[in-house]
Amino acid sequence: MGRNKIIITFTLVLFSLALYSQQKDSVKVKLNHYSFTVGTGWTHYINNLENGDDDIRQNFAGISFKFFWEPEHRLSLGLETGYYKLFKTTHQVNTDTTLEVNRTVVPLLLLVRMRIVDNVYLGAGFGMALLNNKASGANQEITTKTTSLANFELSGAYIYPLSKHWQVGGEARVYRFGSLEDWMLSVQAMCAFRF
């Protein structure tokens, strides 16, 4: 009788292990996710020059594109680019000549983002930026392109999941341009696709 109990117990243990291993194999858990985010909103350029001109516009709309690798822990790594107009100014030189100056920037950043609590993220980025300056007037146009290498940003975001793949939210950022020693503030609404 003792031998039969041992065989039945051993058979039940093997059977339960077989069921457990099949259940584990049938449910595949995806450990890594990726997301693509598009954001747009208000930007404000903080100029370090004190020229006192009232005709400088420093508030514009900007757009950003981000790609993140999101493993199953709180830390995500990503890339960011976008397009921002920093300022525009117009000067009336004389009755016939008006001078207009524009500055735009395209950042290329490496990002680190951490989930602090549900749906709340803090992030930082560093990298380069392509600065474009265009001056036009008196039937002439001068365009200069500069590369700024020492740039960084700090951000805070709230991202709400609508479904398994779609997320919406908002983000506030401060961005520093190393070659200009200037700052930009940005508040954006975001839409993300997670896969």
Plain-language structure description:
- This protein is mainly β.
- It has two domains: 27 residues; 164 residues, Porin, CATH 2.40.160.20.
- An eight-stranded antiparallel beta barrel has the order 1-3-4-5-6-7-8-9.
- A hairpin with a 2-residue loop joins strand 5 and strand 6.
- The chain is rod-shaped, with a radius of gyration of 27 Å.
Write the SSE topology.
Layout: H1 2-26, E1 32-46, E2 56-57, E3 59-71, E4 75-92, E5 98-117, E6 120-137, E7 140-161, E8 166-177, E9 182-194
Antiparallel strand pairs: 1-3, 1-9, 2-4, 3-4, 4-5, 5-6, 6-7, 7-8, 8-9
In short:
Helices cover 13% and strands 68% of the residues. With 195 residues, the protein is mainly β.
> What is the C-level CATH assignment of the largest domain?
Mainly Beta
Second CATH tier, the architecture of the largest domain: Beta Barrel
Report the C-alpha radius of gyration, rounded.
27 Å
Query: SS-based structural class?
Result: mainly beta
- The poorly predicted ranges are 21-27
Individual helix count: 1
Q: What order do the SSEs take from the amino end to the carboxyl end, as H and E?
A: HEEEEEEEEE
Instruction: Please state the average pLDDT score.
Output: 85
Spell out the key features of this protein.
mainly beta; 9 strands; 1 helix; 2 domains; eight-stranded antiparallel barrel; Porin; 195 residues
